[in-house]
Request: fold
Amino acid sequence: MSAPIHTVPFVDLTRQHQAIDGAIRQAIDEVLHSGWFILGPQVEAFEQEFAQFCQVQYCVGVGNGLDAIQLLLQAYGIGPGDEVIVPSNTFIATWLAVSYVGATPVPVEPDPRTHNIDPARIAQAITTRTKCIIPVHLYGQPADMDSINAIADQHKLIVIEDNAQAQGALYKGRKTGSLGHAAATSFYPGKNLGALGDGGAIVTNDASVAERVRILRNYGSKQKYNHIDKGQNSRLDEIQAAVLRVKLRHLDQWNEQRQAIATQYTTLLQGSTVATPYVSAWAHPVWHLYVIESDQRNALQDHLAQKHIQTVIHYPIPPHMQQCYQGTHGACALPVAERLSGRVLSLPLFPGMQASEVAAVVDAIQLFASA
Reply:
């Protein structure tokens, strides 16, 4: 009988959850027995704990990461006629939030090394209608926030960090999410801090913005049946908050595991035919993704799949090339984002991944190069 084929998964949440299975079940049971499922003590406690983790004063739990960005834009009064600077190289949610409030996303190309928005290109995209910049800390790599904030200060713009992929990352010793006027994050299950379903939050040091988001997330209501805004239903529920409270206690440890795996990849791939991630001297990434570049990306991905190694492309189609933006951005010339979309490949990386699995991925990449 032949030995079973071992697949290296792109992510395996079951390994992450095994060690805390009892604590998660206990947290869920407590909510179940409390009979309180929406905007209760678990949400309040998580908001306090996550604000402290992010080194800010306020956190407001919401339904998902997209809602978090949209609600912040609404809280700052950004809407029709306004322009918001966004990265050309990002997941489409960053753009969609801008479109949902009636504003116009204005894409700016990334630094080809870091894949994050290039501050040197931002100024030329600013017009009299620009109201906000949304830098994304892509792959868990902090964007160059000092440079971005300097431009924003000069032009009196709001800075909203999209921190969905960088929970716990450090920029010059400070937590991402604490570096702009406010930040949005997602607790989608695959994030560094993931719920058991959808969830999100905003964090800020601005009490008025936090209060406005609290109202907007709850049908525009501060007091039941008294609606002072045209809000929406976007609330982090008690069960997800309880689970996130358990997982938050392990986040630093899980991020350290991600950093160790990334270091192993970078060390073993030195001198190979693929380009490994560039890390700025001031950045302490948390490696939500480990993204390499290859001139033969598609063939490499096929080869790894044949070796039972799962990979993902983040992202194969830039937002401006998506069908939903063809009417407004179809004529955009964004060659850096387009080039990256044809070269990038995300390798398996998750807490609980074994060193032998990392070595198997590297061996397969080197085999492809030699062939």
